[in-house]
Structures are given as structure tokens and as C-alpha cells.
Amino acid sequence: MIVYNTLTRRKEELKTVVPNEVRMYSCGPTVYSRAHMGNMRAYIFMDSLRRVIRFNGYKLLGVMNITDVGHLTSDADDGDDKMQKAAEKTGVSPWEIAQKYTDLFFKDTDKLNIGRPEVVAKATDHIEDMLWFVEQLVEKGYGYETSDGIYFDISKFPSYGKLSGNTRLNDNIAGARVDVNDEKRNPADFALWKKAPKEHIMQWDSPWGRSYPGWHIECSTMGRKYLGDRFDIHTGGVDHIPIHHENEIAQSEALLGHPAVNYWMHVEFMQVDGRKMSKSLGNTYTLDELEEKGYSPMDFRYFCLNTHYRKKLNFTFDGMDSAKIAYSRLLALLKACAESEAKTDPTIIEAFKKEFADAVNDDLNIPLGMGALWTLLKNPPSKDIYAAALEADKVLGLSLDKCLEEKKDDVPEDIRELAEKRFAARKAKNWAESDAIRNELAAKGWSVLDSKDGYTLKKNG
Question: Rounded to two decimals, what is the model's pTM?
Fold first, then answer.
């Protein structure tokens, strides 16, 4: 199994600390608001990696954090805690907000067939562990106190910046800094622990008074607690590279005296219509909103799997329409295979299995593996092909066995009749009648997505 290591900037063979076992930490959600489709791409990547690891016969111990305290509104340690700010805005306690959005997060991941890591760790359940970690860093001379908290002195860690490649300390100012803290020894020193104003809801006792943890310390702490002083893989988004993961490396190596993680793996951004995705631009969508537009969770998963995790993924509704049609056709072809009594030459099946395994084991080249499946489906339908597809689905996670389920059709009868009439007109190459019926359907609030072998109806709005 080959993976791309952000730290070394090259593909490497996966060699585990514990033989036949992979220990992996994944940065989880900050549960102050609803996760959107860009967030979900990161967890589909995490899930794909977990599936490929298991596909190769490894035992897996995975940890994912739930950030319910400590993540400030700026990664530069400025502003309010995101949980605190959400509480002030809604009038609901941070703990209630955290529970609400944690539940919604897992509701979405369940719909997307994203498996839960073996350990899901909440930051607020590990305050004492984090406090011990910070005290050790202060004792070793890496942490120092200011009027507003405890900061990590990056000048004491000469290799700071090695993950991002930015080793010029004066230039490495994390995030969009508004106010420079004059008490810091270096502008890029980051918060290990923050002193809490009296009105701050989330605060705990510490040697430095009532306070709360910084964001970065939780991952270093919980990774070490559950995975040991050295583990195999750490995952996250590319946005974590220059700040959060850089700071994790500094904290962990300062405490341990050696690297804590062997392979760092990062998923690229999702864009929308070629532009940056952000709530301020109003171009983010939740899974619920995609479902309201007629797309199933598996349509979205299929859409994501068609682009390699290290490439930017450009979200468009045309792209989602294509994914919806392709996924529907995939299920139809597999249904025909499942119902067939024919046999396929075993050499064809074995060739597919090798091609699929080679693809997914080459740094998770899932798109290439899916291409191999489509090529296999060009053969006459057979139960052998269906069985091979279900084996591949252990990696893809597309619920391909659902092809045998009767589809729930919520399309009104009059709309279905019009669509069938249009389909007949298309087959007869009566384009004028086909276009007229399309316009009639549009007036009734329905779009028709044509494919080579049929069509799909989608409710507009």
C-alpha cells in the first residue's frame, strides 16, 4: 500500500509501527454549526483511507476528535472561542450546541456510509490530559506565560515549519492576524492554554487560573493518549497544514523528543463553480439541502469519489446531475448482473480484481478503481461480476447491494406519464415533441436528466 506523505512530499510504502495494524488520527469537526459538503469531502477521504487499509488486511485503530472547546474564530489565536460565540448568538449553552451539531454530524456521516473511527474523543472529556501536556511543555521550557495565556515558543523548536515548508519564522504568521500580541516572543507563537475572562462560559481550573485549552493541544494530547508516542497516519484538510498540524508537530515532538506521526495525509479543498467555498459567499450546502434538491447521499459520495483526494474538487450542479445519472446507471447494470444466470470467464474477474487493488493501493486512486469497475461492466451481465463489484464496494462504500431494492418513487403519476411519453418521443427521434414535453415538465417544476439508456426526474427548487 502506497500513500503520499505531506511531510516528505513523496509517495511512500506504508510501514506500520505495530505489525499488521494501522494506528490513525483524523481531525474531526468543530461542532458549533452544521457541517457542509466541503467538510464531508474530508470525511469521505478519511473513510476511503480506512476502507483501503482494511481491504489490505490490516487491523485498524482510528481516533477522531470532536472539538467542543478551544477553537478560536481565527486560527491565529485571536477572537472568541467558536463554541462560546455560538452560545452567545443563540442563547443556548455550548454543551447543548455541541451535542446538537455532533448528532447532526453523525447523522450525515451515517447517510454517506462514513464509518466511525474506533475512538471518538471529545475535547471537553480530556481537559486534565491536555492540562498535563501543557504543564510538561512549560516545564521543558517550550511554554511561557503572558497576561492572556500560555504560548508555545517556536524559536525553541528549530524545525518549526517543516510540514508546510515555511521555516521563516517572521513570515509564518498564522491566519489573518488583526492585532499583534506584543507579549509574544515571536508573532507565530501559538496558544497552548487561554486565560478566561469572567464572562467566558467554558473554563476550568489550572495553575494559571480559570482558563481553557487552545485548539491545537487537543489533537496532540488525544493522539498520544489513544495511539501511543508514535503512530502511523494523521489525516486532515490541506487548510490544516500551515497552522494546526504544524503546531501539533511542534507540541508533540517538543514533549516526546521524537516524531509522533510517520505519515501526514491531506485532502484538497472543494470549490463551488471554480470559486472558494465559504459561508460568507453563500455557496455552501448541507447534505439535507442537497437531498431537498433531489440528490441522494450516495449521489454525492459518487461525485466525490470521481476526483482523487489530492486534487481540488469543483462542485457544480451539472456535475451532481452527471453523478446522479451515472450512479443510477451503475445500480441498473449491477441489478442485471445480480439477476443473471450467466458466468464470466474467471480470468476477466481476476484481472479486474488486480487492476482495482493496484489502483486503490496507489495512494487511494479511487477514480481509477471505479474506471476498472465500469470496464468490467461492459462484459455480459453475470453473478460473478456482481460478486466482484460487491467486493470492490468494501472500498467504494456506495451501497451497491441496494441495486436489488425496489426504488421508492415519489414522482407523481401525471409527471411520470409525461416523462415516459417524452422518452418514447426521443426514441422515435421526434425532437420537437420531446422538447415540448420537456418544457411542460419544467412548467410543472420538474427537470429531466437524460442518459444513454434512460432518464432521471428531478424536482426543481
Answer: 0.86
